[in-house]
Amino acid sequence: MWFSETKPMLVCMEQRLTFPDRQRSLAQYRLRAEGYDSELAAFEPIRHSAIAQLGLNLGDTVLDAGCGTGLSFEPLQRAVGAGGGIIGVEQSADMLSKAQDRISELGWVNVTLLNTPAELASTPTLADAALFHFTHDILRNPAAISHMMHCLKPGARVVAAGLQWANPWAFATNWCVMLAAMYSTTSLEGLDKPWSYLADYLGKFEVSTTSMQGVYIASGVLMMPFDLARATASASLMPSTPADKMPPA
Ligand SMILES: C[S@@+](CC[C@H](N)C(=O)[O-])C[C@H]1O[C@@H](n2cnc3c(N)ncnc32)[C@H](O)[C@@H]1O
Fold first, then answer.
1. CATH number for the domain that contains residue 235
2. Angle at CA of residue 87, ends 85 and 91, nearest 5°
3. Mutate to test the pocket of ligand 1, among 137, 146, 177 (most ligand atoms within 8 A of CB)
């Protein structure tokens, strides 16, 4: 009796501790797409800090990995100007259609949207910078990180921000982090150092924390050549799914 009731809960927790799951993520964001923008309002200061740390110049091209509904596009546009460009990579068609609405409404012509998992994205050009804003499922997918790094110019600036475990005794913060992570990611794996795969590729790497240590902002500069041995070891942890085996979004 006890086992039959708790088993689904245990299975759910077990799933949460393994690699990100594309199908669960698509289902999660299919449900969230409509109300997503208002849910994220509280995180705007973090978004603005993260984008400031990208140090963008007019004319730059910036990759927005897991761009969602395009909430970062407006501040990114201000930084790169009409002569620059934004490449939004997003696997959820539901989230991306909101991003497309935003682009049409504001009349931007310098945004390229790619409806694809990050690990398979084929970008039209190498970017000068990359943003990973609240994209834990991408950061914990070594194949996706490897692929995204190959879409950047040497020396590109990279910034990631998102949830992380605070110190073990910060129970209240960690409770909030767990609830928020279960709502917005498919894996709790790596929440102690969500940036660890990214760090293999970056020099001048720095991490700061905010929100009672429950949120980090990590930044660095793409080293070229990066430590291929370390990066390959990480990338081989999770095989990427061949395009023809990918179920539709
Ligand atoms: C919490 S939302 C963040 C959206 C946006 N970056 C923001 O700050 O508002 C995470 C997004 O990552 C997307 N995502 C998750 N795994 C992905 C993958 N492997 N490739 C591309 N997008 C992915 C989800 O569909 C979702 O839109």
1. 3.40.50.150
2. 165
3. 137
